[in-house]
Amino acid sequence: ASNVHFLDLKRPELAQNVTRRMVFFTKRYGFSGIFLKFDSDVLLTPGFEQFVELLDDEIKKEKKRSGMRKLRLILSISSNWVKYVYRRMPKFDAYFDAFYLWADEISSTSEFPIPSVAVPVDPLHNSELVPLKDSLARNAEHLAGSGVPRKKIVIGLSTWARSYFIRKNEELKTPEVESLVYSNEDSGQTDGTLGYHEVCHLLDSKNKHQQLHYDNRSETTSLIIEDQWYSFNEPEHAAFIHKLDWISNHEFGGIGLFSIQGDDPLNNCTRGLLPLHRTVGDRFKCRRGTKRGNLEQLGECTRLCFLDLEESRNSFAFEQLQPGWCSHMVIGQASVNPYVYSGPSKGMNLALKLYNDWERERKPFLIATASPTRFILIERIRHLLDEHNADGVELNCANGGLDGPNNAYQMNSFLADLRRTLGWKKQILISLNPISFVDQLNFDFANMVRSVDYIVAIGYRYHRSTNTHTGHHSPLFKNSTLLNQPKMTIQGTLEELIYKKLIVSLSAEAMSQHFVEDIYGTRSWESRRIGESASSISQNRIRAHGPGVVSQTQVCTIMKEATTISHFLNELGVPYLVNNDREFIAFDNSRSIQIKTVWLSLQNIAGIALHGLEHDNIAGECPEGEPFHLLKTIAQSQNPSSPELLENSDDEEGELTEEEKDLKAKKISNDQTLRCQQFDEFTTNFTVFCSLSLDNVEIDMLAKLPLKQCNVFLINNLAKLDEHGKTVENEKNKEKLEKIKISNDQTLRCQQFDEFTTNFTVFCSLSLDSVDIDMLTKLPLKQCNVFLINNLAKLDEHGKTVENEENKEKLEKIVSIANKKEKINLWGEVGCDMSQTQWERIINDRKREKTVAALNKLMTTYQLSGLLLDCDKFMRPPLRRDFSQFLNELNSELFEKDNEKENEKNVVDELMDCMPRLALKIQLSRKNISEVYEPEQLNKLLKFILLPSSIALSKAKAKSATILTLEQSKIKSNLIILELPTFAILQKREEEKAEPLIVTQKEVCQFIRKPGVQHHTRYDAVTSYWKTGEEWLSGENEQTIKYKVQYALQRRLGGVLLKSLESDDPEDFCKNGGYGLLNTVHTARCGV
After folding, report:
1. What angle (nearest 5°) sits at the alpha carbon of residue 62, between those of residues 57 and 64?
2. Could you give the CA distance from residue 11 to residue 951 in angstroms, rounded to a whole number?
3. Alpha-carbon gap, residue 435 to 487, rounded angstroms
4. How many CA atoms lie within 13 Å of 719's alpha carbon, on the beta-carbon side?
5. pLDDT top residue among 572 and 377
6. Radius of gyration of the chain (CA)
7. For the packed helices 629-637 and 590-602, what is the interaxial angle rounded to 10 degrees?
8. Helix, strand, coil % (nearest 5) of the chain?
């Protein structure tokens, strides 16, 4: 099976599977097309033609299925391979939208697939430096002459510089390459390519003696400094301009520029941002704003942004918005009264102009707000949308209008007529006040959802600035003594609603009131609280936004004043402030918005909206440098609703015609089975790790491990490295380790390992110390893709691994189970038991070999798929290079030892993909990953990076902060694994200083069944806890697990690790089928 390739004509099912996955992921991530870049010789194979035909069929099926624009398909061709493939290209014309021609680094005269002579970047014509076969012009014309339409040929140019050390040569032509020049910047390049920002300084005024050589025949530029040779495209240089003009004058389809990172994105060269891209942009102007809508991406969060520019405001910084922050931009308002002037207001015209001038390849859907007053306005609405090329309409019924008594029938008739007029290509949103949901006699929501795309519940008008007492306009929770009407909260509003198609709108707009004056002087302003009487007298502070309206920037500024005090109401989930002007301001901040976003995500509503975008610190004034900080919080905290909520049931078709039903069906998700299958594809690179501690597990339990629910098993403390670089194992765990041994067939193991890394991966960890050996045969194998043995061994100060002898039998049991089952990956966790100095000693150049050998012995003894190293606490900046080298040598040693026989069979290349078999646990307290690690080396040498669990509330936010730190350090997100504990911690109030007890899920169920137990969830930290008068218990529950798995999926993380599987109620005491939290992981993963 290892020799089978998806281009094999005898196995078309493999090619078909690949094409399906390609199309699915392309649509899933919202891309407009597929760029195929195969090794050039692949283009000559018969299997390539079959593959392209299958891919084209799959693209057509997807277009028919979704009703959306057909995916574009582009083929990449190396310039010096055109002479071999050009005859075949015309037959592919029907399948490809473009042929991307690029200049190869390897000269056509080279005998080897490595640079031997210095080829200038992007040679347009041949010259003394460039053979004719390598010129872009010759090959582009050759391709066009074969029958490929010119409009489909795209010429690819490069922003990267080529750089070599060359052999001494008195003449400039064709210098011979000696070696590569490596990047000094964090560009990730290791092949001699440098970014333009790394070479531009060579031409500074200080270096006038260094002359840029211009070959006007090939239109290339190069530079020699001693024994270093460089070639790059210089912005606005004649060579670069002539290439652009040639492409334009010869009517080719376009130009490609690779890539942004290779340009100067930070203006290091002081020539303006992205000078190469800017030069191309000045020469080639394209229509802006033709692509809209993040919702084309399957599973993208629905996130509405409302913008209503007042006439007094003359600007809005669209460019500060990130593309993924808003799925819809709702711009208001337009008048659609049929009897008087109809059209956009001045503010709407300004917003439309700014939106149209916004230079962004993909913009949010443009939704125009209309306030209808008559049902006959349907035609006016259609005209308004057509005139402004809007994607839909928001019917704002929050200010009266259609929101009146006894009009449920008229409303549904109006919406049905509007839907028939607009069809299903235009979106219809209807916004309603909270009172509309409390008194549902006015609306028939069950029928309303047949005609609209979304119902927007206004979640910020539960209190007004004109009320006679102070209150909050957007309270979340209903159980508070401050409330007279619990239903007048977001939670109360949603209690009896159909969540399908429901969006809750939050607001960036704060609300100001003033306390009644204390004429007797008995109250200090500091003692003022929410709920007290409010004055109707005009406010002391005059603001530009109108009475009672305060922006986020103004709130931030007021908070800095010494005469301001703020309070946070946990029972309502919102903050407010008071100041010595008798002013009361109710507002939302990042904490309250996060709480609301998490809570709403857990309710599985269709989406979240943010009203008053213009008030969300758009200029980044306060907080400084944080524009749109509330919107950003929503974007970072929101998880998409479950796919089933996007489906439409048969009984909702109502009075639609068959044609309308067919058109509507194109917007509906696939059936449940297909959806789960798609979710499996969507969860590619998401990994669930399971760790196992052989000290705590009984040997019989190893046969019952849930092998199919964990992608990786990690054996904790498998061994320790001693100061001599040797591994010291725990002899007591020998027998258990033998039980866990897997097949010696490296090819099969590599195949299995590749499989788990290309799927949503569930890792399950086991602590052998805590598990009975009989339980090992009852583990839920189908729900864990990988098993991790916790604390399998420890490295000692000699670099030896030390194992726990007491767990030998259990370890042998689980090794035996893994050896008998297919696709079971077993990992072991190795800790470090030594001092800081001893750690430095065992990974340095002199001792490293012994340490590597000890870990390799541990791997081969138990035939593990990988090792998780838990030694982060010893890492310091001086060890960065040593640790990278240690990982590199360890990976190489593991690879070489496992494949000595395969090396003789010349199949080394086939096994290279499974060479990284190491992982790293990083402390949540790490603030600067790049300080102690080399991110580019971690990306290359690790299979995953584990973030350990933290139940303590004080540390609850650390995990998301650490993820952000890792991503900012350029760590690949699909390497990051979240650890979710199955155990909980129990603290007795009378023993608050004592060490908390670790309890299992069985004990959790026993605890929560006690009389008087109260359950609470911290939504800002996504943690759950239960308490009585005497005890306090904190741990994961179904809601928090579900949110965290979906959080990881949404952010394309590598997976989750369910820690200590033996604590997850394997005996089903809780009566939920056993392994309740693991089952929740599976449910959240599939979205079912």
Report:
1. 95
2. 50
3. 9
4. 30
5. 572
6. 32
7. 30
8. 35, 20, 40
Q: Which amino acid is at 680?
A: D
Q: Which residues pair with 714 in a beta bridge?
A: 691
SS3 call for 632:
helix
Size (the chain), residues: 1088
Q: What would the pLDDT profile of 663-684 be if each residue is shown by its tens digit? A: 444 444 333 333 333 334 334 4
pLDDT surpasses 50 at 208? no
Measuring CA to CA, how many Å separate 372 from each of 214, 378, 418, 444? 66, 9, 12, 19
Q: What percent of the chain has pLDDT over 90?
A: 11
Give the burial class of 544: count Cβ atoms within 10 A of its Cβ; 0-12 exposed, 13-18 middle, 19 or more buried.
exposed
Reported as half-sphere exposure (CB side, CA atoms, 13 A), residue 60 has a value of: 9
Q: CA-based angle 298:303:306, to the nearest 5? A: 145
Tell me the C-alpha distance between 172 and 556, whole Å. Answer: 62
- How many other CB atoms sit within 10 Å of the CB of residue 786? 37
Closest by Cα among 27, 9, 17 to 55: 17
Sign of CA dihedral 549, 553, 555, 557: negative
pLDDT by residue (tens digit) across 401-424?
444 444 666 777 788 888 888 888
Q: What single-letter amino acid sits at 558?
A: I
- The rounded distance, in Å, linking the Cα atoms of 826 and 823 is 10
User: Using an 8 Å Cβ cutoff, are 14 and 6 in contact?
Assistant: yes
User: Within 10 A of 225 (CB to CB), how many other CB atoms are there?
Assistant: 11
Beta-bridge mates of residue 730: 803
Residue 413 burial by CB count (10 A; 0-12/13-18/19+): exposed, middle or buried?
middle
Measured in Å, how far apart are the chain's first and last C-alpha atoms?
Answer: 33
Nearby residues of 204 by Cβ (< 8 Å), 6 or more positions away: none
Nearest 5°: phi and psi at 656?
-70, 150
| Amino acid 33: pLDDT | 81
Provide DSSP, 990-1005: GGTTSPPEEE-HHHHH
* Structure token digits, residue 285: 């102007």
Q: Which amino acid appears at position 725 of this protein?
A: G
Q: Is the pLDDT of residue 922 over 70?
A: yes
> Is the predicted pLDDT of residue 830 greater than 90, yes or no?
yes
Q: What are phi and psi of 528, to 5 degrees?
A: -70, 145
689-693/712-721 β-pairing: parallel
CB 331 within 8 A of CB 366: yes
Burial bucket for residue 547 (CB in 10 Å: 0-12, 13-18, 19+): exposed
429 is written with which tokens?
């949103």
The token duo for 480 is 């508070």
Per-residue pLDDT tens digits for 767-826? 888 888 888 877 777 778 788 998 899 999 988 999 888 888 888 888 888 777 655 788
DSSP string, 1022-1055: TEEEEE-SSEEEEE--HHHHHHHHHHHHHTT--E
Q: For residue range 1032-1087, what is the model confidence (pLDDT) as tens digits?
A: 899 998 888 888 888 888 778 888 999 988 888 888 898 888 888 998 888 887 65
Per-residue confidence (pLDDT) for residue 49, from 0 to 100: 87
Q: Which of 887, 800, 870 is nearest to 842 (CA)?
A: 800
Residue 65 near residue 75, CB atoms below 8 Å = no
In this structure, are strands 365-370 and 328-335 parallel, antiparallel, or unpaired?
parallel
Run of H or E including 15? helix 12-28
pLDDT band at 35 (very low <50, low <70, confident <90, very high): confident
Tell me what pLDDT residue 578 has: 92
| Amino acid letter, 818 | A
Residue 896: pLDDT band (50, 70, 90) is low
Residue with tokens 């012995």: 857
Round to whole Å and give the CA distance between 660 and 664.
6
- Is residue 139 exposed (0-12), middle (13-18) or buried (19+ Cβ within 10 Å)? buried
Residue with tokens 């696939």: 670
